[in-house]
Design goal:
The chain has 269 residues and is mainly β. The chain is built from one helix and twelve strands, in the order αββββββββββββ. Strand 9 and strand 10 form a beta hairpin. Strands 1-2-3-4-5-6-7-8-9-10-11-12 form a twelve-stranded antiparallel barrel.
Length: 269
């Protein structure tokens, strides 16, 4: 199952790179949003007056305690609005087909609201002081017996290195009042993690993302998880972007991801 899924992802990447147009896009191909196509965030809010609608299908293949592979599918829908030059508003929701267990870092069925505020902008490419922003978001479950909201805060930095290459770092901390099914484990009420990655523009309309996420294991106390992630972004035309992503968990406990993948579309105007 996992080999078949990986082959599908590789085939999709080959098909999109085989014939790539070079449009004047509405949103820069290197402007990242967590989950499209990796968890890496950057310190570049959506430009003022820009409205982006993003939808994605995400699959998780995990292994339970007896070694059986379990799959599930999540559908996410998000909007991003540039309300000012350095301020972005976000809203979205996610639904789940499959089991709530094992738990995920992001609540698998919830509504979410958030904002990003950039308080420093890198003066020019190559300058040693990176762009810096803060992102705050909250997710509120709409299924199950418990409706405990989560709250996440993240410090986000991005450095334009020149040569069409960007480096970004995220430090985030997330809390939830008490345990709910699908959200971590009963012993956990908080998680923290670090993302470090790079974006390389391959052409005017495509880019590749390489990211490493290191965080506390949401399924076990006193344990860490390392998840390398690979993403690919391509502008299909002036307003449409396609994003692909794949990652895997390492060092975690039973229930970690054997493979996680996503395919998403962004429409911008």
């Amino acid at each position: 199952m996992k080999r078949t899924w990986s082959a599908v992802v590789l085939c999709a990447v080959w098909l999109t790179t085989a014939s790539v147009p070079s449009p004047a896009w509405s949103l820069s191909i290197v402007n990242l949003n967590p989950g499209y196509g990796t968890s890496l965030d950057d310190a570049y809010p959506v430009p003022k007056g820009t409205f982006a609608v993003q939808s994605a299908l995400r699959t998780d293949i995990t292994e339970n305690a007896v070694g059986t592979e379990v799959g599930r599918l999540r559908a996410t829908h998000d909007i991003r609005l540039g309300v000012a030059e350095d301020i972005e508003f976000t809203a979205g929701g996610t639904s789940l087909r499959g089991s709530l267990n094992p738990a995920t870092v992001e609540d698998p069925r919830s509504f979410s609201l958030g904002t990003m505020v950039r308080f420093y902008k890198q003066p020019e490419p190559g300058d040693w002081k990176p762009s810096t922003a803060i992102r705050v978001s909250s997710s509120i479950p709409f299924q199950g017996d418990r409706k405990n909201p989560t709250l996440r805060g993240a410090l986000v930095t991005s450095w334009n290195v020149r040569n069409n290459c960007w480096i970004s770092g995220n430090v985030w901390y997330e809390v939830v009042p008490s345990f709910q099914t699908g959200q971590w484990i009963p012993a956990r009420t908080s998680l923290f993690g670090v993302n470090l990655g790079a974006v390389k523009a391959l052409a005017e309309s495509s880019a590749v993302v390489l990211n490493f996420r290191v965080m506390q294991d949401p399924l076990k106390t006193n344990s860490m998880v390392v998840a390398p992630e690979l993403g690919y972004l391509v502008a299909l035309d002036t307003n449409w972007q396609l994003s692909l992503g794949v990652n895997r968990d390492f060092l975690g406990t039973t229930g970690q991801g054997i493979v996680r993948g996503m395919v998403g579309l962004t429409f911008t105007w």
